[in-house]
Amino acid sequence: MKKILVACGAGIATSTAVITKIKNLLDQNGYQNQYTIKQCKISETPSLSDNADFLIATTAKPSNLNCDFISGVPFLTGMGKEATEKEILDLMKK
């Protein structure tokens, strides 16, 4: 079971939009029931990263992370989305 953190500045708006897209990506690629997603504020991620496999955030990468980091900005802009989706799927295979 992969533990995924999804964060934005306040942990409400853009992270909600990104979560929907991540769930669709994972489910369409056969990962139903193989992951959990925790939505949070970016300020919470360093302490939560000890128990996560990776973080997808719509902000800059925070320091002191103990998990892999993926920028979620391509899910908002569309630019680089395919590469980001591949990165997520590669991390799911680990």
Automatic annotation (TrEMBL):
Question: Keywords assigned by UniProt?
Answer: Transferase
- A GO molecular-function term, please? protein-N(PI)-phosphohistidine-sugar phosphotransferase activity
Residues in PTS EIIB type-2 domain copies: 2-94
PROSITE patterns in UniProt: PTS_EIIB_TYPE_2 (PS51099)
Q: The organism sits in which domain of life?
A: Bacteria
Q: One GO BP annotation here?
A: phosphoenolpyruvate-dependent sugar phosphotransferase system
Which residues, by range, are in coiled-coil regions? none
Q: Which Pfam families match?
A: PTS_IIB (PF02302)
Listed InterPro entries: PTS_EIIB-like_sf (IPR036095), PTS_EIIB_2 (IPR013011), PTS_EIIB_2/3 (IPR003501)
Could you tell me what this protein is called? Answer: PTS galactitol transporter subunit IIB
Task: Please report the organism this UniProt entry assigns to the protein.
Answer: Anaerococcus octavius
